[in-house]
Design a protein that fits this description.
Bound molecules: adenosine-5'-diphosphate, magnesium ion
CATH class of the largest domain: Alpha Beta
CATH topology of the largest domain: Rossmann fold
CATH architecture of the largest domain: 3-Layer(aba) Sandwich
Helix content: 25-40%
Radius of gyration: 18 Å
Strand order of the largest sheet: 6-7-8-3-9-10
Order of helices and strands: HEEEHEEHEHHHHEHEHEEHH
Distance between the termini: 38 Å
Largest sheet: 6 strands, mixed
Structural class: alpha/beta
Length: about 250
C-alpha cells in the first residue's frame, strides 16, 4: 500500500529540522515524509524529541534550522495559521478546556471552518466516532475521564477539518481497553480520508496501527521503514517492544 501512496508528492515533508531549548538540542537534523492517505508513526522513548517535532511542525516552538513543507509549500507561521492550512494537533496531555463543556470544546476546534453546514456535519461525524462525547456533550471537560478527554482532544482536532491530523501520545496513561477503542477509531478516521502522523512511546500500538514508522533517539532519526518490518526487527523489539531475546 505504501509503495502506491509514495508515488505521489508528500503531504508533509520535514527536512533537516533542528530545534533547541537554550543549550538543549532537542531535535538534531530530523527528516520525515508523510504521503496522502498514510498513517505514519514516530516512536521513541521519553525525551527523544517527539513532542518538540510536533510542536515545531505546528509553529508552537521556533525552528533553528531546516524546512517543513505541506503540500509542497513552506509551512511557516503561528499555530492558528497552520491550523487554517489544514493541519491540527491533539496535543500530549490532551489539554482540553476544563471549564468548557464537551460541545464548547468541539466548537472551539472548529474555528477555521466558516461553513456552518460543514461544522454541523463534522460534529455529527465526531459524535459517531466517539458516541461517549455525544452522551457527555453538556458535561464540563475537566470532569471527564482520561480516555474521554483523549477522545475530546481528537474530536476537537477533527473539528478543524484537517487533511493531516497530528497526535501526540494518544495512548499515554490510558488503560489497554481504552487504547484499543481509541486506536480503532483512529484507523476509521484514516479510512475516511484523514492522513495521520502520530508520535508514541507505545511502540507496539503505534506500529500495529501505522503503515510506516520512524524511530527517534535523542533528536535524531535512527531507523525508518514499513511498520510491520519494524515490528519484527530484533533491535526494535529489544529496545522498544520488550520482546527481544538477550544475547548475553
Ligand atoms: N520547554 C522546554 N524547555 C527546555 N527543555 C525542553 C523543553 N521541552 C522539552 N525539552 C527537552 O527537550 C528534549 C525533548 O523533549 P520532548 O520533545 O518533550 O521529548 P518527547 O516528547 O519525545 O518525550 C528533552 O530533553 C526535554 O527535556
Ligand atoms: Mg512528548
Amino acid at each position: 500500500m505504501s509503495d502506491i501512496l509514495q508515488q505521489q508528492q508528500p503531504l508533509l515533508s520535514v527536512m533537516d529540522l533542528h530545534v533547541s531549548y537554550g543549550a538543549i538540542k532537542a531535535v538534531r537534523g530530523f527528516n520525515l515524509d508523510v504521503y496522502p492517505g498514510e498513517i505514519v508513526c514516530v516512536i521513541g522513548s521519553n525525551g527523544a524529541g517527539k513532542s518538540t517535532l510536533m510542536n515545531a511542525i505546528m509553529g508552537n516552538v521556533k525552528r533553528q534550522g531546516g524546512q517543513v513543507l505541506f503540500e509542497g509549500k513552506p509551512l511557516d507561521g503561528q499555530s492558528f495559521q497552520i491550523v487554517t492550512k489544514g493541519i491540527s494537533l491533539a496535543p500530549e496531555g490532551r489539554k482540553v478546556f476544563a471549564p468548557l463543556t464537551v460541545y464548547e470544546n468541539l466548537m472551539m476546534g472548529a474555528f477555521p471552518v466558516n461553513d456552518k453546514a460543514k461544522v454541523k456535519k463534522d460534529l455529527e461525524w465526531v459524535y459517531t466516532l466517539f458516541p461517549r462525547l455525544r452522551e457527555r456533550m453538556a458535561q464540563y471537560a475537566g470532569t471527564l475521564s482520561g480516555g474521554e478527554q483523549q477522545m475530546l482532544a481528537i474530536g476537537r482536532a477533527l473539528m478543524a477539518s484537517p487533511r493531516l491530523l497530528l497526535l501526540d501520545e494518544p495512548s499515554l496513561g490510558l488503560a489497554p481497553i481504552i487504547i484499543k477503542d481509541i486506536f480503532r477509531e483512529l484507523k476509521r478516521i484514516n479510512e475516511e480520508g484523514v492522513t495521520i502522523l502520530l508520535v508514541e512511546q507505545n511502540a507496539r500500538q503505534a506500529l500495529l496501527l501505522s503503515h510506516r514508522g520512524y524511530v527517534m533517539q535523542t533528536g535524531q532519526l535512527v531507523m525508518e521503514g514499513d511498520a510491520k518490518e519494524l515490528l519484527h526487527n530484533p533491535d526494535i523489539q529489544a529496545a522498544y517492544l520488550g520482546t527481544g531475546k538477550k544475547t548475553h
